[in-house]
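STRUCTURE:
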């Protein structure tokens, strides 16, 4: 499932193909994904210039010249591919249409952007740009972890009196937007905080320390995604999925990498999701 760094990588990969470019034609090949598409979606996209391609949490937002914004959510299995870009960044030939190519954007610069989603947990919607933040998916979101509103005081205030484990608190999209299971595990490991510790019981100093750690974990992953984009010419044109090495996520039973530790990494289930941590280093 794509997390924030993967979505940001997709956004960066789409940008040269879409930003400032007219959508010559949009093919909408079915009525819905997770939810029905907005009415007349193909018509409302056709002829519009993508003025800006933004990201909010795990959503890609394309601001159109019509005053509407196209919201794209990759869901569990949504994939975006770019082919045929004349700028030479994407030298892939247009592929033969695949099953599950649900939406295809034919860009005026010759690029073709395809949204493929076999499981259809993805979503697209059109919102009025001016009031996009009021959309039901966006209005519930807390600050962006890489933005200025996510800071030490914000996290201290959000954790104060909270009886839930810190793991759940960081997954709460109202506290910080876009953090998912993988990067929360990684951040807590780097911050040496046990995922089981109650958020309200962590000292202000340790909570504050988590802020730059969370940013760094995400920035490192975005950087890894950036390298994957540079290798893009050899790839199949698919954006956003790249190889990672995690310090703790997915390493159950393997030795902790902290120098002098080596304790086997533990896995527990919290709110139905796996938490990986070192019981020795993380308190
Ligand atoms: Zn350890």
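SEQUENCE:
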């Amino acid at each position: 499932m794509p997390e924030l760094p993967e979505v940001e990588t997709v956004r960066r990969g789409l940008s040269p193909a879409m930003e400032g470019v007219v959508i010559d034609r949009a093919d909408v090949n079915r009525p819905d994904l997770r939810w029905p598409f907005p009415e007349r979606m193909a018509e409302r996209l056709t002829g519009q210039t993508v003025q800006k391609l933004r990201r909010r949490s795990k959503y890609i937002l394309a601001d159109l010249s019509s005053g509407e914004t196209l919201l794209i959510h990759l869901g569990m299995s949504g994939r975006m591919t770019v082919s045929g870009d004349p700028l030479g960044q994407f030298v892939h030939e247009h592929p033969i249409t695949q099953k599950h190519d649900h939406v295809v954007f034919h860009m005026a610069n010759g690029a073709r952007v395809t949204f493929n989603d076999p499981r259809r947990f993805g979503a697209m919607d059109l919102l009025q740009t001016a009031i996009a933040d009021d959309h039901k998916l966006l209005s519930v979101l807390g600050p962006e972890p890489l933005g200025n509103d996510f800071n030490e005081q914000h996290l201290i205030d959000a954790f104060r009196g909270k009886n839930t484990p810190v793991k759940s608190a960081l997954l709460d999209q109202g506290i910080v937007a876009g953090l998912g299971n993988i990067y929360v595990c990684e951040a807590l490991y780097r911050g040496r905080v046990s995922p089981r510790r109650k958020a309200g019981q962590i000292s202000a100093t340790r909570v504050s320390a988590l802020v730059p750690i969370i940013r760094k974990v995400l920035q490192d992953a975005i950087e890894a995604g950036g390298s994957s984009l540079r290798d893009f010419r050899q790839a199949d044109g698919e954006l956003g999925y790249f190889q990672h090495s995690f310090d703790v996520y997915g390493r159950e039973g393997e030795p902790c990498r902290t120098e002098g530790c080596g304790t086997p990494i533990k896995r527990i289930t919290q709110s139905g999701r796996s938490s990986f941590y070192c019981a020795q280093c993380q308190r």
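REMARK: The mean pLDDT is 92.
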